[in-house]
């Protein structure tokens, strides 16, 4: 009898537990249905709710407050600030510090005070290279930790970093006009040359760090002459190609695949692997306003026909130098940023986003003259305004 009594009690406990579990499940279902009805009535975006309840590892959770939104994020300066995409994290360089933020919630992932008087930032892949232009210090970091910091005896003119962490630094020279040094991420010296062809004003490494291009400038017949010197890093000076650019000031130079894209103040073109220059826009045809690259390395060039014009063109140019699309924009453009499918421009009053492939306008966000620059990641647009970094969402439906 005692055994039967205990068995009946166990069954009763299991039955009670099953009833409680069913009540909890049906209660949760009722809550979810009610939430969906409310969202439908008030036209709440489901994706925004999903983002709100997604943790930093990308897992969905119903835990309240799992993602603390730190935007707008306060920074320590309102001027001379660079905001860039570093491996889908937000990199922020100010006159005194460098910070890497989680782009979803503004959480600080990595940061330090650099102590440089004139810091310049170059990035590629997970690597950031910060150098003190006019002084001798530079440092290499990833999005999560320091790799190394070095101090050179000569002043740094310009520098670049490759996707594998290879760093190239151009400095003044004790013997000639300039020195160029290339180091691996483990600080092994891979190339060191001295040149007297001119002063290095721009330098670019190929993605794998095996090729290097240096733009040098000289004076000729009262005009500035720019020449690009192309090296195989392993061979140094024994394998060098020389390419003359059109007259004018070089604004940007970047290795994209096998080609080198060069943008001047009044021209744009490519240099192929054989050292042949091909024009995209002939000298004098454009007045360059802004230069940006997509994550895949395509060029986004903002130009107009003459200085101070408010009629601008966004030119989407493939790595090969082929112009894929031109988009007309009215208004003075202060900044441009591109994701894989969108390009956004900052004017004095708006942030306008376009589809890169077909030029279709996707969204307009109101702003004011206090906005200094923008940085796009997908549909997210980060705005540097005074001493804040704000996050906005472009409506791309």
Q: Number of DSSP helices? A: 2
What portion of the residues fall into strands of 2 or more residues?
over 45%
Class derived from helix and strand content: mainly beta
Question: Distance N terminus to C terminus?
Answer: 71 Å
Q: How much is the average pLDDT?
A: 88
- Strand arrangement within the widest β-sheet reads 1-32-31-30
Helical content stands at 10-25%
Q: Profile the largest sheet.
A: 4 strands, antiparallel
Tell me the Rg in angstroms.
Answer: 27 Å
Low-confidence stretches: 40-53, 63-67
Number of DSSP strand runs: 32
What gross morphology would you assign? globular
Jot down its keywords.
single chain, mainly beta, 4-stranded antiparallel β-sheet, 2 helices, about 50% strand, globular
Brief overview:
This protein is mostly beta strands and 397 residues long.
List the helices and strands and how they pair.
Elements: H1 2-42, H2 46-52, E1 73-74, E2 82-86, E3 89-93, E4 97-101, E5 108-113, E6 119-124, E7 127-132, E8 137-141, E9 146-151, E10 156-161, E11 167-172, E12 178-183, E13 189-195, E14 199-205, E15 211-220, E16 223-232, E17 236-244, E18 250-256, E19 259-264, E20 268-271, E21 277-281, E22 287-293, E23 299-304, E24 311-317, E25 323-330, E26 335-338, E27 342-346, E28 350-355, E29 361-366, E30 371-377, E31 380-385, E32 388-393
Antiparallel strand pairs: 1-32, 2-3, 3-4, 4-5, 6-7, 7-8, 8-9, 10-11, 11-12, 12-13, 14-15, 15-16, 16-17, 18-19, 19-20, 20-21, 22-23, 23-24, 24-25, 26-27, 27-28, 28-29, 30-31, 31-32
């Amino acid at each position: 009898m005692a055994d039967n009594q205990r068995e009946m009690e166990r069954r009763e406990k299991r039955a009670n537990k099953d009833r409680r579990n069913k009540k909890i499940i049906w209660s949760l279902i009722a809550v979810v249905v009610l939430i969906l009805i409310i969202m439908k009535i008030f036209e709440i975006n489901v994706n925004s709710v999903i983002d709100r309840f997604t943790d930093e590892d990308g897992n969905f959770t119903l835990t309240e407050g799992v993602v603390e939104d730190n935007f707008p994020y306060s920074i320590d300066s309102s001027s001379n600030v660079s905001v860039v995409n570093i491996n889908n994290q937000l990199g922020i360089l100010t006159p005194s510090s460098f910070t890497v933020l989680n782009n979803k919630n503004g959480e600080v992932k990595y940061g330090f005070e650099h102590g440089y008087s004139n810091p310049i930032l170059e990035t590629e892949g997970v690597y950031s290279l910060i150098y003190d232009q006019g002084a001798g210090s530079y440092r290499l970091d990833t999005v999560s930790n320091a790799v190394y910091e070095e101090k050179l005896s000569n002043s740094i003119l310009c520098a670049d970093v490759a996707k594998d962490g290879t760093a190239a630094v151009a400095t003044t020279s004790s013997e000639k006009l300039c020195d160029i040094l290339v180091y691996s991420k483990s600080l092994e010296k891979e190339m060191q040359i001295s040149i007297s062809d001119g002063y290095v004003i721009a330098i670019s490494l190929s993605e794998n760090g095996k090729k290097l291009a240096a733009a040098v400038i000289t004076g000729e017949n009262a005009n500035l002459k720019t020449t690009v010197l192309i090296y195989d890093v392993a061979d140094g000076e024994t394998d060098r190609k020389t390419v003359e650019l059109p007259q004018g000031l070089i604004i940007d130079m970047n290795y994209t695949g096998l080609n080198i894209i060069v943008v001047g103040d009044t021209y744009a073109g490519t240099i192929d692997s054989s050292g042949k220059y091909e024009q995209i826009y002939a000298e004098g045809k454009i007045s360059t306003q802004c230069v940006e690259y997509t994550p895949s390395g395509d060029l986004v060039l903002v130009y107009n026909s003459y200085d101070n014009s408010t009629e601008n063109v966004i030119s989407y140019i493939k790595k090969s130098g082929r112009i894929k699309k031109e988009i007309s924009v009215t208004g003075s453009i202060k900044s441009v940023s591109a994701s894989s499918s969108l390009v956004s421009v900052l004017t004095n009053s708006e942030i306008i986003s376009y589809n890169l492939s077909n030029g279709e306008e996707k969204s307009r966000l109101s702003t004011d003259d206090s906005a200094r620059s923008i940085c796009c990641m997908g549909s997210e647009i980060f705005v540097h305004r005074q001493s804040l970094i704000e996050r906005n969402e472009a409506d791309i439906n």
